[in-house]
Amino acid sequence: xxxPRSPRPSETAPPRNDPAPSPPRPRPxxxxxxxxxxxxxxxxxxVLAGTGGSxxxxxxxxxxxxxxxxxxxxxxxxxxxxxxxxxxxxxGTFTADGYTSSxxxxxxxxxxxxxxxxxxxxxxxxxxxxxxxxxxxxxxxDEFGRNITEKPSTIAxxxxxxxxxxxxxxxxxxxxxxxxxxxxxxxxxxRDGLVLFADGTVEAYxxxxxxxxxxxxxxxxxxxxxxxxxxxxxxVPAGIEDIEIDTNVGNHSIQxxxxxxxxxxxxxNNLVLLVVDGRDEGYSxxxxxxxLGEILxxxxxxxxxxxxxxxxSVMILDGEVANQPSNHGERATSxxxxxxx
Length: 341
Description:
By secondary structure, this protein is an alpha+beta fold. It has one domain. 15% of the residues lie in helices and 31% in strands. The protein has 6 helices and 21 strands. Strands 3-4-5-6-17-16-18-15 form an 8-stranded antiparallel β-sheet. Helix 1 (40-49) runs antiparallel to helix 2. The radius of gyration is 19 Å and the shape is globular. The two termini are 35 Å apart. Mean pLDDT is 86; it is low at 1-50. Residues 160-339 form the Phosphodiester glycosidase domain. GO terms for molecular function: hydrolase activity, acting on glycosyl bonds. Pfam families: NAGPA (PF09992). Residues 1-33 are annotated as: Disordered. Keywords: Glycosidase, Hydrolase, Membrane, Transmembrane, Transmembrane helix.
């Protein structure tokens, strides 16, 4: 049964692909920004909240926290999939451009192309791990449910993450297959997903053609449910610029030049975690979905999958925000994907 509670004022904005911190070295200089990047849906919810009969709906849909699993750490412990500090390598060291240990190598680079208003800037982390379960997920406030959010850097700090990116903002919807760190939390197939298996392989798949139980039995470690797939067999799929992820307000369309977050696959136990900045003319305009796939292909990936973007797009390295989020800071979100050590 869901347990409602009052939301935290700073953590109520729903996800959308719309509308600083220290970078990996080197980092582009921040350009002057323009007003008008307020979260449209957040403002919309506020308006609805003041329109009589719509107020209860808006509060329940966008603000009220609905806890389904109150202790995720306990759920992982019961499933035998939790990781303790003693199980992580003790020889990890942050370097000038990432992190290295006896089990993990993370190399972060920033790059850009174009000039003037056409400039596009991104941050890419090449992640190589000896054990695929070192790439983990974490939920805001260590709870699973709807509208439960927290800043990604806070979630990352709570789990001693080496590197983290925002996830799929599962908490904004009640559909999708959600398996995290080997535990099933939701089994409502709806769209194309991404599954990271415990053997280090990764596949884009059709959620409606399988189930959470079948995926877990096949060795699924984490699933992500947003999309679309922007790179398949090294090629950008036709028609992805027309795909809609949800038909509800807020995520109806994810098209155009947007800040983006994506997962790319180079090979077994070798991922690229990518964040493309946007909405900042002269620094980075944001990428279209085909461009996102092309960037991943140029980075050596054969598979690429789009995650929640816009103001949610963020990369955390060694506890600090590495990119330049379009909100001039972090947006609270439901979850992160992170490297444990």
